[in-house]
Amino acid sequence: MLKVTIFSYLGTLCSATVIPTCKSFTETFDTLQPNPLGEVLPILNQVGTGTYKNLNYGTAVLTPFENSLLPPITPKSPNNTAVIGVGLTLIGGLPTGSVGITPQSTIKPAGTTKSFDLDSLYIACGLNAMNSLVGVRTACGVTITGKDINGNDLPSQTLEWGPDELVGSSMEYWKLDGIVKAKEVTIKITSSLSQTLTIVFLDNVKYCVRT
To answer: CA–CA separation, 160 vs 197, rounded Å?
Structure first.
């Protein structure tokens, strides 16, 4: 009888232990609808919490390519991308301790999300502010940093992107390492010919969330 009681107690403990699962998503930005005035006032096209309402993309704005004449890059999945540039970075306010003006945006949990893992994304860079109708692609370096839910630094990693075509350059796949249980992830341009005029395009952001 004693053995049965002990095993029954252990079974109850095991069944009561819930391991949070991480639910996967891929944000393509393609179901989001741009504001017609967004080309003039990019703040009207902020991505916000995106398609799934579980991450906040900070100062990133939606950029459509459907009617582009000479697009600087080709979206990984047509027709929209998110864009990070210095204009919305300034509106959003620079992080404490920032030196100089660096185009950047910080992704944070939204809704019921407690933490998230950032698995991969596609990036490319260009000039010409937020206008996707006619643009110029440019080489750049993009760095990702972050903090986990305990306030510890996540692994910093950088990707150098270079255009492969005069127009419509391909976006580059970026597999990330160790961006897990994040409470915030910052994406910023850390090198380019004209850093303050450079923008970084994001597409097909693959991640998972814990609630």
So the answer is: 17
pLDDT tens-place string over residues 92-127: 444 444 445 789 999 999 999 999 999 999 999 998
Q: Which residue has the tokens 């206008």?
A: 131
Placement of tokens 């902020």 in the chain: 46
Q: Around 209, how many Cα atoms within 13 Å sit in the side-chain half-sphere?
A: 19
Q: How far apart are CA 168 and CA 121, in angstroms?
A: 18
Rounded CA gap, 82 and 45, in Å? 10
- The one-letter amino acid code at 88 reads L
Q: Is the pTM of this model over 0.90?
A: no
Longest CA pairwise span in the chain (Å): 80
**Which CATH code for domain 21-210?**
2.60.120
Dihedral of alpha carbons 123, 124, 126, 132, sign: negative
